[in-house]
UniProtKB/TrEMBL annotation:
Pfam families: TetR_N. This is AcrR family transcriptional regulator. The keyword Zinc does not apply. It comes from Flavobacterium endophyticum. One of its GO terms (molecular function) is DNA binding.
Length: 196
């Protein structure tokens, strides 16, 4: 049995992500991946059972990295403003430093791989954020609301700014670069909308 070559494994993952982002999940195949990596298709099957195994493996590994990045230095005991600010900082840094992963995750969110992707990082993340939500409601900092409402107000503005930044343009094609001033101005508005 051949030993896994870690450099080759890294190349396979990078090229798989790149191909999925560029061509979508429908346009992704093990043959295209092997060609992009300049290896044989048989070599891919040493590392992964099949296409699904490859995609799920990447989703779980990268989802865990993203989840860890999102709760770095975050404490569920933080105030609404402090905790939300830390979340914005973590999410923004992760997304801007990993633009290809953000696009890859977007592909997964609207696919049959969504469950595996979400399960990969949601367990710990959900616990920490759940405690945070409980605490800010108990302290009377926000009204009780469905999580989807909270998320839409708290994070949708951030992810739109990141998307504009990663695309280099905003609505109507105007050039756009996310600055600290724009980021925190938007944050203040989102915070104001959530606060009691």
């Amino acid at each position: 049995m051949r030993i896994r070559d870690e450099e080759k494994t890294k190349l396979v993952k990078e090229k798989a992500i790149e191909l999925i982002v560029t061509h979508g999940l429908e346009g992704f195949s093990m043959n295209k991946l092997a060609k992009a990596c300049s290896i044989s298709v048989a070599t891919l099957y040493i590392y992964y059972k099949d296409r699904d195994d490859l995609i799920i493996t990447i989703a779980v590994e990268e989802g865990n990295k993203m989840g860890t990045a999102m709760i770095a230095d975050f404490d569920p005991e933080m105030s609404l403003e402090e905790g939300l600010r830390k979340q914005w900082e973590n999410r923004c840094n992760y997304s801007i430093n990993n633009p290809m992963m953000s696009l890859f995750f977007d592909q997964l969110r609207s696919s049959s791989y969504q469950q595996e992707f979400l399960a990969s990082f949601l367990k710990e993340f959900k616990t920490v954020v759940g405690k945070f939500m409980h605490n800010i409601i108990q302290r009377g900092e926000i009204d009780k609301m469905p999580f989807e409402v909270y998320w839409s107000i708290a994070f949708a503005p951030l992810y739109n700014l990141i998307r504009f930044h990663n695309e280099g343009k905003s609505m109507g094609g105007r050039p756009f670069k996310l600055t600290d001033e724009i980021l925190w101005q938007t944050f203040d508005l989102a915070l104001k909308a959530l606060k009691k």
